[in-house]
């Protein structure tokens, strides 16, 4: 009997679509060098789980608001999995490292939303802690490659063959509205997820960090730590809390 697509949990395909790669190696190295780590938007929890498996002996906390993603993470033991986002939980000076991997940063669509996230991350960090995250560099125009022809095929846990395609609906003022369509011959109809991602320049990221009391300690354009250029695919930032911001924003 065809599965009802409205019940289809697309988180089931996340790990198959996002296999372990150089970004995971980069964040795993950082996690292994820190005592207490918070992963904001941890998704299926791959990085923290790998840290524990590699012998990390300290506190590992994964936070995510999506129940389907978190259910997948909860299948991995050895980590504290927390449902929600930084607006709904308060961590106070508890972590040496906060991660935001897999372009989570791009879900925050306005400067105010980003400032709120940065302020909450700063509060969660111990003095001398680090905040590592990446955003796709607008100069590399990734959205131009998000076309149906560049879709991917995955095989699900029950052997179902699923095609995943992206369609960009609009690009305006750094905001890319897109849909992600999951289709399978066994399903009566496809499952469509819609969303918006913000593309922010390195200069904008740095200014927002400075406003919220961070200093950029390291910046790269790719996971091998090569320098950022105008067309690097990523803007990878490791920030440290600096002096308190003059604006009074935390
Ligand atoms: C592309 S996935 C990345 C997952 C994981 N970090 C990784 O690298 O594979 C984006 C994740 O961000 C989460 N997310 C969405 N809005 C969020 C928010 N406001 N705060 C924290 N996480 C959020 C989603 O639930 C999703 O799991």
UniProtKB/TrEMBL annotation:
Coiled coil: none
The protein's name: Class I SAM-dependent methyltransferase
Gene Ontology biological-process entries: methylation
Domain Methyltransferase: 37-129
Organism: Saccharothrix xinjiangensis
Pfam families the record matches: Methyltransf_25 (PF13649)
SUPFAM superfamilies xref list: S-adenosyl-L-methionine-dependent methyltransferases
GO terms assigned for molecular function: methyltransferase activity
PANTHER family cross-referenced by the UniProt entry: METHYLTRANSFERASE (PTHR42912)
Keywords assigned by UniProt, alphabetized: Methyltransferase, Transferase
InterPro entries in the record: Methyltransf_25, Methyltransf_Superfamily, SAM-dependent_MTases_sf
